[in-house]
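Many introductory courses stop at the sequence. We go one step further.
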Amino acid sequence: MTLDDRKLKTALVLPGGGARGAFQVGVLKAVAELVPKGTINPFSVISGTSAGAVNTVVLAAKARRFRIALAELEQVWGNFRCNQVYRTDHLTMLKSSLHWFAAIVTGGLIGLPRSLLDNSPLRALLSRNVRFPRIQNALDRGWLDAVAITAAGYSTAQSHTFFQSTDAHQAWSRTRRVGVRGDVNLDHLMASIAVPMIFPPVLIGNEYFGDGAMRQATPLSPAVHLGADRMLVIGVRNELADEEPDRTDMPVSPSFAQIAGYMLDALFMDGLYSDLERMTRINQLLDSVEPAHRNGILGELRPLDTMVIVPSKDLRVIAQQHRHELPFAIRTLLRGISGERPSENRLLSYLLFEKAYTRELIELGYRDAMNVKDQLLAFISGDDVPRLFAPAWVRHDLSSIHGED
């Protein structure tokens, strides 16, 4: 199977989510089983942010053998330990806590900490396991059309999408977001996963960058710029509303951990759903106008078919069940910034890089994808997909977006 065999250019969009990124691996494991054995990467364009960027570059570097790429991703995600992502030893955590405390009481005279956690172990792990030069080989051989990862520039306050592609694609510039063409490397990846305050920013050129979700108001835009006709989006949050608080209880001020988890939740997923809703509204507008009468800006709009798969279960609940597996030093840190409140589970679900938790998320992603396997395979293959009979955690819309978005 080559790019020429594909009916439509299908993109894979992988938003961020920390340890929740294991869910994406489960969904893609199902995809790997659904496509014929020996199939190359079935996605012409792969675009990722934060944890999704990690999965993105691995898939791009292993584009020749999609099943092998997923087997390797599952091997890594299914055997994660927190100390492979960030330093968890007692001495490091003590130094970090003391540094934060001293910086606060001295007004920053001793120098401000760069982050809450040190993710140098993750950089070492990615450096050993990701072969970035293979991405260009995949492009040259037609196994991939483009790969993109997004980071946020702190000085320019712009969303930067660093992309590597065939010659058909050019850089772009829009309000607060730009596409920068060049070879994707480890610094780009580490910048994309540099969650603000939790992980340190990364210097690229003469600017520091952080997690790409911070300025990514239109997470689907990179895939559209790179020519996608349809997109499979794998989210990391179920869309069931939280229960209303008991009005008879005295309200409790949110802890640092609760605020941080809330921030990450909004950071990684809210922009995505806003973008999807905008696309749906544009599609409805197009449907109301006959093709022959679409003049001006309407004439420049094109349809974009989108399938979204999100977890059928609340990942916060799953994280709470595995809380005891978190290293003692990290549990102590969380306790210190939130006490014993269940509200810390949202933050916990992003930081719990422990194999029992990630394996359960992989299995959940696999089951959720297999529950819609016929729709999923048809969507990837470029066939028409009926909108009926989709479970609550699968969203399928025929949307449209401006060709120059």
